[in-house]
Design a protein that fits this description.
mainly alpha; Tetracycline Repressor, domain 2; DNA-binding transcription factor activity (chains A, B); DNA-binding; homodimer; Arc Repressor Mutant, subunit A; DNA-binding (chains A, B); TetR family transcriptional regulator (chains A, B); elongated; 2 domains; 206 residues
DNA sequence: GTCTATACATGGATAGAC
DNA sequence: GTCTATCCATGTATAGAC
């Protein structure tokens, strides 16, 4: 609110924010490799070089830390290969998938927490429910738009196809984590080609 | 070895086997709703009406119990809608998916443990690695067979398609668990139709 | 802000009586 | 086979000194 744009005070505030960032980074790694339930605050604290209690000074509870980690995940996932220029739906997704192969930690975190999300009393459940709902809507809207351009193959249901894109992506990540030989991007591309007509196949002119 | 076929002794052995079964059943439920790491032996013991230490008499460690649960999962998953008569690859899969909607516990267990499987030092990791490898081989073989029958659509790569079938299935289960409105079987059918020509479309005669 | 000390619960697993 | 008692490790979280 006040003066976020003018970082006049370089004092404790800046340091505190940095601390928080490094804590979230550490928690990200811990949760990715051990899960939320399996990871401990002590693990996180050790990586930051802080005592477990000091860590709780920044994040009052483990749950709060998870929320922060999930937010960071969103931020990192948005940092895709392409900036904001809307190129092509299919191209964007495939490039994103290819790009993700370079950041296995992100995929690991996602897959682990997503599996845990279906358990009872899980703090991150709502996050995944909302995420899935949002992705389905977004992709569905994209597909409807493609249909209007005559690029959606006949008989394809946008809603179901949107669910399937998300599903295929999530599922292929699981396989890839357990066997890196699986070609995530290729699988995704094959599927997208089966429901979408390539852009250069129906242009106005060539 | 000795006389398994002749259940002469109805004594302690039969009872012990029954106990083991009920313990595995309870563990199945506990791991399904809380995960392996989140579930406790005490939870399991309480459901069976046994002390936690008595439970360890049957399964020396929590890890052993997980193995037993995973084996039970295989057994239950094999108990599909169709017996053993090989009808049609696509039909079999879709009916299996539809059937699974009636046993959410099985799906929940699978999804949770599968997510945990990508964490470090997880006892069930090998199980899932092997399972994925086997499914990919099986499906791939089926698709190659279909190709020989001229029922595989042109341009479809059997290996990748096999991976994708498994991936789509796993992923759609996750979504379904978090939102029952998602139509698992329909998504699977759509995808299969996009790579396989329906059986009644290329028969010898009609 | 950072720490030590500690509370308090829960976890898996063992020893040994019955 | 089943239990109680117990061990020992680990977990999250709090209190309070510095």
């Amino acid at each position: 609110m006040s003066n976020v744009d003018t970082p006049r005070r370089r004092g404790p505030y800046a340091k505190s924010a940095e601390r928080r960032r490094s804590i979230v980074d550490a928690a990200f790694e811990v949760f990715a490799s051990r899960g939320y339930r399996g990871g401990s605050l002590q693990d996180v604290a050790d990586r930051v070089g802080l005592s477990q209690t000091s860590l709780l000074h920044y994040f009052p509870s483990k749950r709060d830390l998870l929320v922060a980690v999930l937010n960071k995940r969103d931020a990192e996932a948005d940092t895709g290969p392409i900036g904001q220029g809307h190129v092509d739906f299919e191209t964007t997704l495939v490039e994103q998938a290819r790009y993700n192969e370079g950041i296995p930690g992100l995929i690991e975190l996602y897959s682990v927490l997503c599996g845990e999300a279906v358990t009872t009393d899980y703090p991150g459940r709502d996050y995944f429910v909302a995420r899935f709902a949002r992705l389905r809507e977004e992709y569905s809207a994209e597909l409807i738009q493609l249909r209007e351009q005559g690029r959606l193959r006949p008989g394809v249901d946008p809603e179901r196809a949107a669910s399937s894109i998300v599903a295929l992506w999530d599922g292929i990540q699981l396989q890839w984590l357990l066997d890196p030989n699986v070609d995530m991007a290729a699988c995704l591309k094959d599927f997208l080609d089966s429901i979408i007509v390539p852009a250069d196949a129906t242009p106005t002119a060539s």
